[in-house]
Amino acid sequence: MQQLHLLSYNIQAGIYTRQYSEYVTKSWKHVLPHRERLHNLSRIASMLHEFDFVGLQEVDAGSLRSGFVDQTEYLAYHARFPYWYKQVNRNLGNLARHSNGVLSRVRPHAITEYKLPGLPGRGAVMVELETTEESVFAVCILHLALGWRARRRQLEYIRELAFHYPYLVLMGDFNCDCDSSALQNLVADTDLRGLDCELKTFPSWRPRRNLDHILVSKSLQIIDARVLDYTLSDHLPLSMKVALPEGVQLAA
Prior knowledge:
- With about 250 residues, the chain is an alpha+beta fold.
- The protein has a single domain, classed as Deoxyribonuclease I, Chain A.
- Helix content is about 20%, strand content about 30%.
- It has five helices and eleven strands.
- The chain has helices spanning about 20-25, 35-45, 70-80, 150-160, 180-190, and strands at about 5-10, 55-60, 85-90, 95-105, 110-115, 125-130, 135-145, 165-175, 210-215, 220-225, 240-245.
- A six-stranded mixed sheet has the order 3-4-2-1-11-10. Strands 5-6-7-8-9 form a five-stranded mixed sheet, with no helix packed on it.
- α4 (about 150-160) runs parallel beside α5.
- The longest helix has 15 residues, at about 150-160.
């Protein structure tokens, strides 16, 4: 069976946070460039080499605060991913360009952007990979809203997208724990698996909440799922190994 090693990571635009007080004392890093950012991105890139597909949240697509570095492109280059894509969800021009990012070692067949319901600035990107049985393997990277009402609408929107794919991975920063009723409804309605309350990712310096999730179709076998101890953001990265059904391979 063909296996894929997946990673979801909210990198907080390359900002290394060590405690809650730094959201205030180092808030300037969300606006202005600083020399530690590229060093931190390089450390993240060195960790990404073992993965086949990476979904990134809170990536900057090139603005003042990132030194006009497209962080998705930077990570793709330094971690040697041949395919990468950015979805800009909140474009503040030279001040900030909030994005989701995709890194892939498999050539995408199609990529579609979705603007999620609620206030502008939240999005999902669907990456379709062809299989040898002419079906589609899709990976959706998303970053949901902080407010529960908007998040519920966004999960309902994602549920409708999920019905179109026999092999699907949903991953990203859901901004809600596994006990969220809206998230549980999504899992129940779509038969997705992988919701694990033990995989706590936030805050990175003392993880107490599982805001980040990787959910997969029941047709995919989950081999391993774990939180990685890389405190390079305010979230920890979440990884999962999955296997396609016997006889199904991703097309070259």
